[in-house]
Fold this sequence. Notes:
The structure holds two protein chains of two kinds.
Chain A: H1 7-34, H2 40-48, H3 67-80, H4 82-102, H5 105-116, E1 122-125, E2 141-145, E3 148-158, E4 166-173, E5 178-185, E6 191-196, E7 208-218, E8 222-223, H6 229-265, E9 267-268, E10 271-272, H7 277-305, H8 311-336, H9 338-341, H10 347-354, H11 364-379
Parallel strand pairs in A: 1-4, 2-4
Antiparallel strand pairs in A: 2-3, 3-7, 4-5, 5-8, 6-7, 9-10
Helix pairs in contact in A: 1-3, 3-4, 3-6, 4-5, 4-6, 6-7, 6-8, 6-10, 7-8, 8-10, 8-11
Chain B: E1 2-8, E2 10-12, E3 18-19, E4 26-27, E5 33-35, H1 37-53, E6 55-62, H2 68-77, E7 81-85, H3 95-109, E8 114-118, H4 129-137, E9 141-142, E10 145-151, E11 154-161, E12 164-171, E13 174-178, H5 190-196, E14 202-204, H6 206-209, H7 217-220, H8 244-257
Parallel strand pairs in B: 1-6, 1-8, 6-7, 7-14, 8-13, 9-13
Antiparallel strand pairs in B: 2-5, 3-4, 10-11, 11-12
Amino acid sequence: xxxxYTPKQKMIRDTSRAFSRDVLQEYSTEMDRTGSPLPQxxxxxxxxxxxxxIQAPIEMGGAGLDSVxxxxxxxxxxxxxxxxxxxxxxxxxxxxxxxLLFGTEEQKERLGRDLVTGARIGGFTVTEPNAGSDAAxxxxxxxxxxxxxxxxxxxxxxxxxxxxxxxxxxARAGHxxxxxxxxxxxxxxxxxxxxxxxxxxxxGNMVSELILNDVEVPERNLLGSVEDGFRISMKALDTxxxxxxxxxxxxxxxxxxxxxxxxxxxxxxxxxxxKFQGISFKLAEMKTALDASRFLIYRAASLRDRGxxxxxxxxxxxxxxxxxxxxxxxxxLQIFGGYGYVRDLPVxxxxxxxxxxxxxxxxxxxxxxxxxNAILREFGKY
Amino acid sequence: xxxxxxxxxxxxxxxxxxxxxADGTLVRxxxxxxxxxxxxxxxxxxxxxxxxxxxxxxxxxMGPPAAREVLIQAMAMGADRAVLVSDPVFAGSDTLVTGRIxxxxxxxxxxxxxxxxxxxSIDGNTGSVGYQLSEFLDMPLLTRIHSIEVAGKCxxxxxxxxxxxxxxxxxxxxxLAVNRQTNTHRHPGLAAVNLAFEKEIxxxxxxxxxxxxxDYGIKGSPTMVVNYESISxxxxxxxxxxxxxxxxxxxxxxxxKHGILRY
Lengths: 382, 263
């Protein structure tokens, strides 16, 4: 088992890292301070980098990369700007990927190309004000009306909500409790972007409510069938969790590297603070946790690429990486002391950004349910 | 249509190279490798000329097989062809022999209108391969380029000379040495990186470029690196106190005392 990067993965890493440093980094502080999104010209440069279609086929305008490479790209972007990493991973993994996997050729051509080129940004939404972890209790309804569906409801905490143009929306369809996934496009009458959230972290991503007032969605915008919706949503989240875990890894790596460098430079009691075991032990624990996150992510990614089941592994990598990111950011801030608490340095931003990775695309508690159920299935009757 | 050649070098990632505190030598193990930073700007200059004036770009590197990666990177940026000049007998070559090897490889590959190199490499810092190529290929060399235009059979170059720009018109063929003052290099897209790994790389060994083992490597090199030494400067730390006026006066005294100001 060779755990090292291929030369191609190394180059993907170096290219993504250089672009993030040279182009994205200058916006990360302002985005956090003002909550404003990236300017359009930067979004266009990201399109030239194929960031909006990392795993989409090259003939569609994507980069055609494997899932480990995908994880690498999200990590490198998130090291510099977690809010941008979030936009990219949600767009790729829970909007574009389900369309490419479950969509008709017509949907892939009509919608997939716009997503791959970044002409329109994608989102995915199940969550509602009264339905978070209890996804089965969503209230948004889709009623059949002639050759279309009429969607009515309200979605909450939609990543890319304020900037997106194509959304996969989960809605209860017809009678009988089926959940369908509908492709809702900005501009459809009755579709409205609601409140943009003022968040603790991931600032600059236009997370928002989506309001659906009898939005007429044509039949050709139904993804799969109404019986498929739950399965499509779960498959989407399996892939999405690899992305979120990668994002958490990127945040954690940024915090860890900043802390490690600071520990070699900051001098107290006549020596660099890294020479004290109280600090070096923290760094050792941080590095170990991050390396473990990395390889859990790559295992889930590898299983996905080989077409093998990866739900439990995806849940594990997201659970571990998000917990590790929070732990690492807390300890990094501690190492920086007072300087970690002020906004002159990005350490406090890493800390604020990390928290949501334990919550969205399935809370850590839900991840434990998924893994626990998998264990019970493996060991006995469940 | 322009036929453009670029020479690039794979160097240790200096961000990760450490100095051994015991003897001051460079510890390259575990440092990884990258394209020499000036050469990224050379590739960018070549691709930019190709896009603006139409042409093809061939990228050359001399190095071990692992140096293929810088060629792939150049192709991801937009180079059309790549040539790896590699043979175990080339190992240990100094800059003069390197220049000779590259000039032979370029001669074997084609006739070029413009050859572009970086000004210097960050591992050797001699900055001499461009000059050596100029002699071996009998082509004029212009360095420290700010901008390049092509007009018929000439290039029009603005270069930085002290605090001035010089505008120079040179007949083709010409050699140009560039660095970060010349341009901002592009980042290749992920798709371009993916596709570049599928492209063919031509390999030239001693057999193709000619000569014998005595002409190359340490044997053929009139110079050799004997030692690396890190030089550290001890910094005096002086804290000035008092009112702002007093601190300014004290500062002026300090810099006069050290001969920085002479009035």
